[in-house]
Amino acid sequence: MTKSPETVVTESSIDTASVKGKVPSTNEGTSGIQSDSWTGNQTDQTRPFLDAASQIHGGGGQEADRDASRICETESLGRWARTNSRLIDPEEIDSLVLVSNSTSEHEVHYRQSDNRAVKRTWSGVYGQVPFPNKGRLDRSNASPSEYLVRQALQVAVFGSDIRFEGVSISDKPSMVLFEPPRQPSFVVSQEWFEGGEAPTMAEIAERLEADGFVSVPNSYFGWYRPLDGVVIVDAKPDNFKKTSAGVVPIDLQMAVFTQDQLQEAGLAHFHNPSEISALNGLAPLVKKLNSLS
């Protein structure tokens, strides 16, 4: 059992201006962690997420199987991080400026050295993702691999600058009741947006519709793209920012559904997969994501 996602604020509702005057000097409190180099190429940006997801993926379709898969993947995640030298000392994250520790999915810090938000999932919990449920587009607690795929999708679909930093294991208690401490957490970072207001639902709709998404009724702020089966939930104002570049997604719960999953969610089939090539280079990503289902 974990915290209800509706009972706490989300990362993007944080008043970033409130940390002004609290950020450390350049040499103070700077983490030694290094994110994967950003080349501006979305394929390069998604690869670390997808490679890790494919290596720790545990399978699982129905909810009971998903619970078992989450447990299995959580157990293997720490081993994967050690084997691949992706462990981050939790003190390196704790030394950064704390922006918020009351969000539903992440503890958020600010790293001045590269002007980025550093986000650590709660111990043993990996957010939520879209889930087909008896004719509805629903949500479900994510497994570690599903969390990684979700991040890769936001990079690939919206061009978000999100980077996979690594895995942290601390002595903090798990957010899952009856689970022991020292559960692994993911650490990601993303571009820091200073201040800025949340857009209206109409502005969000305009942005998503321009990207080919269709609103899904009777869902939790759900959208899907018939072109390729990409689905989104939790697309509400506090998960976006209004910037000079327009409405920017900050933290969306995303997945790619197969045709069977779309049917289970009460959504129409997406069209011939051969036409996915029109997705601006997303075909290899979509193919790989569907192989993880």
Concise synopsis of the structure shown:
The chain contains 7 helices and 14 strands. With 293 residues, it is an alpha+beta fold. The chain has one domain (38-288).
Provide the succession of SSEs.
HHEHEEEEEHEEHEEEEEEHH
Largest sheet, spatial ordering of strands: 1-7-8-4-3-2
Tally the structural domains. Answer: 1
- Rounded radius of gyration (Å): 18 Å
First and last CA, distance: 24 Å
Residue share in helices? 25-40%
Largest sheet: 6 strands, mixed
Percent of residues in beta strands?
15-25%
What's the total count of β strands?
14
Q: What is the overall silhouette?
A: globular
* Integer average pLDDT: 79
Output the structural class: alpha+beta
Annotation field: number of helices? 7
Instruction: List low-pLDDT spans.
Output: 1-40, 272-280
Can you describe what's shown?
The protein has about 290 residues and is an alpha+beta fold. It has one domain. It is built from 7 helices and 14 strands. Helix 1 packs antiparallel against helix 4. The radius of gyration is 18 Å and the shape is globular.
